[in-house]
């Protein structure tokens, strides 16, 4: 195990989907690629977040896939995102904002994204990497060229401190791309002054009450 890797393994929360970007994010498939097993159901969406764990390249990796509530509103989404934080205590090391590299993010989707995520505090963005899927779509174009050509993507990458990665989720046989990605997360974690994302006490109390109200 790498000396730079978090003790006890890496905790990841996947965020993304059609209702934030207007396009499918391939989020479940991405979770399966990272863990190297078909542990997330890609055939349907459920209303609650799901946690899965695997040993990946000698590391213990926990992935939480955040799901949209059946009744989709920013408030309910915020509750479910906060619940996803509780599924990997004491908190995730990284959030992966999963977006197809070909997607456009017009202003309406940027506003929607910020509305859904605003209760996670500014600290959220310090722990977030934009994970572009469908890297095969780029062809000979670089991801930097793609980001520069689409204002919404440039805005999002800047929001995340210029942290991004491209995954070719159409090629399940390329294990090295996952290893390289884990190493990039490792590097981000090692350089972060806060080792993991945690909800503050007030938000924890609020989230706990909301979770009970919504799930009973």
UniProtKB/TrEMBL annotation:
Entry similarity comment: Belongs to the TRAFAC class TrmE-Era-EngA-EngB-Septin-like GTPase superfamily. AIG1/Toc34/Toc159-like paraseptin GTPase family. IAN subfamily.
Protein's recorded name: AIG1-type G domain-containing protein
GO molecular function: GTP binding
UniProtKB keywords: GTP-binding, Nucleotide-binding
InterPro entries according to UniProt: G_AIG1, GIMA/IAN/Toc, P-loop_NTPase
Keyword presence, Repeat: no
Cleavable signal peptide: none
Positions of the AIG1-type G domain: 11-212
Keyword Nucleotide-binding: yes
Pfam entry (one): AIG1
Disordered as annotated region, ranges: 196-216
Provenance organism: Salarias fasciatus
Basic and acidic residues bias (residue ranges): 201-216
């Amino acid at each position: 195990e790498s000396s730079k890797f978090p003790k006890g393994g890496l905790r990841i929360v996947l965020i993304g989907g059609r209702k934030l970007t207007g396009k499918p994010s391939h989020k479940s498939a991405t979770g399966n690629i990272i863990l190297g097993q078909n542990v997330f159901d890609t055939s349907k969406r459920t209303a609650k977040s799901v946690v899965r764990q695997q040993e990946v390249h000698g590391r213990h990796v926990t992935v939480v896939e955040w799901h949209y509530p059946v009744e989709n509103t920013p408030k309910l989404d915020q509750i479910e995102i906060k619940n996803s934080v509780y599924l990997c205590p004491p908190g995730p090391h990284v959030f992966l904002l999963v977006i197809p590299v070909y997607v456009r993010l017009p202003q309406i989707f940027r506003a929607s994204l910020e509305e859904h995520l605003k209760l996670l505090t500014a600290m959220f963005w310090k722990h977030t990497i934009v994970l572009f899927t469908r890297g095969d779509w780029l062809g000979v174009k670089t991801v930097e060229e793609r980001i520069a050509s689409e204002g919404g993507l440039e805005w999002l990458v800047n929001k995340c401190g210029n942290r991004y990665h491209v995954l070719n989720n159409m090629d399940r046989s390329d294990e090295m791309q996952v290893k390289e990605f884990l190493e990039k997360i490792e590097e981000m974690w090692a350089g972060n002054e806060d080792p993991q994302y945690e909800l503050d006490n007030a938000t924890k109390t609020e989230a706990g009450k909301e979770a009970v109200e919504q799930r009973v």
